[in-house]
Amino acid sequence: MASITAKLVKELRDKTSVGMMDAKKALVATDGDMEKAVDFLREKGIAKAEKKSGNVAANGLAQIAVNGNVAAITEVNSETDFVATNDRFKTLVNTITDLIAANKPADVDAALQLKNDAGQSIADLIIEQTQVTSEHTSLRRFAVVEKADGDSFGAYLHNGGQIAALVVLEGADEATAKNVAMHVAAVNPEFVSRDDIPAERLDHEREVLKKEALNEGKPEKIVEKMVEGRLRKFLSEISLADQEFVMDSDQTVSQYVASKGGKLKCFVRYEVGEGIEVEVKDFQDEVNSQING
Fold it and tell me: Which of 19, 36, 167, 283 could form an SS bridge with 181, CB 3.0 to 4.6 Å?
């Protein structure tokens, strides 16, 4: 058997744009023959699928799966919302999320190696999806959240999975936690409580508000009170605990949870495509590029 060196693997990766493990498997299967390895990858459809990785996948679905005291929240992307709404894609997302909740992988690379009951890895399933749809599909991110026996998970999907919110409460019950998850999906807080906000950010905001009040010509003696009032408004915008509860604006989220015998612990919120820069093309330019291309 030929020696499969790192240099050989890199050469095949450069030629086909496949992942390292796929390149190594192809070289092992073809006894190190580069041309046969390229054919092997093409026959498997892997090279074609991997070459799609240059396309921007900003659509897709977010999903949540609960497995006992472990929950997983994921975002799986596709290039178009048309693909993201078909049953095959939904099944893939559900499978990925279930496997992550059951196995608690450390990162995306580890998650891609997880296998279903049929022995197919998540990476294999994604490649298969790409082959069928001719669209780049990817597991963009995930988070694994664990709770204690007395805690409650709250899970909520908005608009079929365009936004997913996962909440953990100490105590309370699942219904209360789900209500908080709905709030998180709607309002998009940054932090659980003011205690989680970095001190330098609060100090900076306080200083900005003070200068703002002084520039308005307010007397020095009332500026501090004004600043504290405006700071509370700032906190209500970014701190979950301080926000007015969407289902009852007469109380904050923390007051609502406390009334149910619980306490906020943590939350994760995913919105599909957030932070992904999508190139906006002029339709006429796009048509011309295809005609001339």
Answer: 167
Task: Measure Cα distances from 18 to 11, 28, 270 in Å.
Answer: 11, 15, 28
For residues 44 and 40, give the distance between their C-alpha atoms in angstroms, rounded to a whole number.
Answer: 6
Quickly tell me which residue has 């749809």 as its tokens: 133
- Classify 182 as helix, strand or coil: helix
Return the structure tokens found at 245.
């509860």
Q: In the chain, what are the domains? A: 6-51 (1.10.8.10), 55-146 (3.30.479.20)
Instruction: Enter the tokens of residue 50.
Output: 């991997």
The DSSP-derived string for 84-113 is HTSHHHHHHHHHHHHHHHHH--SSHHHHHT
**pTM, whole model, 2 decimals?**
0.73
Question: What is the phi/psi pair of residue 75, to 5°?
Answer: -130, 120
Encoded tokens for 135: 């669209």
pLDDT by residue for the chain (293 residues), tens only, comes to: 578 888 888 888 777 767 778 888 888 988 888 888 887 776 666 655 555 545 556 789 999 999 999 999 999 998 888 888 899 999 999 999 999 999 999 999 999 999 999 999 999 999 999 888 888 899 999 999 999 999 999 999 999 999 999 999 999 999 999 999 999 999 999 999 989 999 998 888 888 888 888 888 888 888 888 888 888 888 888 999 999 999 999 999 999 999 999 999 999 999 998 887 655 445 455 445 544 54
CA dihedral 249, 254, 255, 258 (to 10 degrees): 140
